Amino acid sequence: MLNKSIAYRLSVYISLAVIGVFIAFIGIFFIFNQSLIKESVKNKAMSQSNHVTSQVQRYIVTTSEVAGNIADQVIFYGQQDHADLFIQSLVIKYPFINAIYVKIDSTVTQLPYWSYFTYRDRDSITVQRGSRNISSCANEQVQFEKLIKKKDEGWSEPYLCERNNIVVAAYCSPIMVETPSGQKKRVGEVICELSLNELNKQVNSLKIGKEGFAFLMSNDGVYITHPVNDWILNRSIYDVHEKVLREDITATTKQVLAETKPGTLIAYPELFNFEKALVYYVPIQQNGWVLVSVLPYKELFEPLYLPVLQMLFFSVLGILIIYLTVTYIINQQIKPLSLVTKQLKSFSNLTGPYKDIPENEIIQVAESLNYMKSWYEKYLQTQSDEQKKKQRRQEDMNQASEIQQSFIKTIYPAFPDRTDIDLYSSYQPAKGVSGDLFDYFFIDDEHLILTMGDVSGKGVPAAFFMSVAQTTIKTNALVPKANIIVEKVNKELCTSNYHQFFLTLFLGVLNVKTGILEYCNAAHTPGYVLTKNGKVKELAQSHGLPLGLYSDKSYGSAKIQLNRDDTLVLYTDGVTEMLNENNEQYSNHQLVDNLISLTGKSPKEIVERLEKSFKMYMGHAQQADDITMLVFNYKA
């Protein structure tokens, strides 16, 4: 034994240690305190019931959140005539939602429809919309009327939907709008039906042991899910057989329904042939329902579970003992040379192909050192190659930045031969290249095009898309109609937009003789008009979705009269969403205040003053987004 290699002797000692440890485990296994098992029964029931509870709460919370989200956004989507698609997509996304009903008061203007009703019809989804209340089955009408009469959001009692013979519960969320006085006004409601049939499938599919089951009760004790489908809505906890609860049924039932915390009790369910079972009930805080989990006692004490739990415990303890034992043996048996040999061998085996290891430790050291030398040389070569690649990438990025900068207009004044207009711009990319664009050019003697846009995404791809968009705008700016130019640009961008970029764009067409500015805002930040009297007008009207997404979308436009010495300010969201060292946004409000303080200044002075305020606001914070501004002054 002493003449063998260190690895061989160590394996023998470890084997002896493992055998000794597990022999000790066997002895301890037979004398382990059995009383700990009884306590684990309750813990197991709680753990399994909590898992089921989380599944049920997910359905309940998701249904209420869906109703709230629709209530917050349905008027916006309705004005875009996309409310039916928006609601239908939610029904498709969440299979446990049976139907969604939306009713908006006719006092809300600019809506093509005021009522929407989307529901599941077998394997399809039906969408109805109209200007009057859309009819539904009788039970739905009754429950909907009760929910609408409530002032606050909340759940209905479970009921049977006659349309598709599904048990459901409805959640109502009011639609609120803000009045000119700043108060909230209720203008309708959204009602989402949670399919308890789907919830029943999910609850029944969750295995609680081998024979255990779970079911839901309403706040008045009626079964709303159950493994026995005939009991749903037809039986309650008050109807249980006297053998099930061998005590005062009424008192016990009231206690369970009134509890706000989880609890346990002993019962003898019919489904278990009145054999003893542990019942663990958990109140659902969101709507007062109660989840009940039932586990048979005989299953909890099956012999299989006891050895598994004990072996898990002793395995952890055994690992600790083995570790301490091996550490002691290594310290006692392995000399310094053997320790170095093991470390070198471990390194070689992890980083290279495995080789037959001789028993002689000196040969092992030599082979390991040769391998490490070869590996280190390869490592140095790899590092050198990576450094060269990094330099090439940086050079490519610098060239891309220089190319993009060459497209940016920097000549001031922009139109030296004209005295009726003046403008100045600022372009500060966050990185080497930017997805922001701006431009200004005449399409004839009277009409000046002003553009400001922001491409989704960052880096070189966004910059290339910006260049394409800028060229497309110039190509299609043939007539002095803002919405027509935007529609043409959108169609061309959709045709070649394989990477799903999109562009928010503000495009204005100014008649320099009359001062009339026609503009189309495709989901871009609103522009501002600063008058010579120090007042700021916000061009907040939006005329459509960003460009490059839907080729068949149409766009509107608006007009505004620019008077002498009025200043138009265009910018990207990098201005208002700029963050300081405290992670606070610059905001539209602060931008407006600064513009008012710059009344009467030239475009160049306004831009330079704003740039200084940006630097002061950010402090030592890093610029996170591209910052672009275009300031135009009308002097005619």
UniProtKB/TrEMBL annotation:
GO MF annotations, alphabetized: phosphatase activity
CC annotations in GO: plasma membrane
SMART domains: PP2C_SIG
Transmembrane segments: 12-32, 304-330
Keyword match Isomerase: no
Keywords annotated in UniProt: Cell membrane, Hydrolase, Membrane, Transmembrane, Transmembrane helix
PANTHER family, per database record: STAGE II SPORULATION PROTEIN E, STAGE II SPORULATION PROTEIN E-RELATED
Record's protein name: PPM-type phosphatase domain-containing protein
Organism annotation: Draconibacterium sediminis
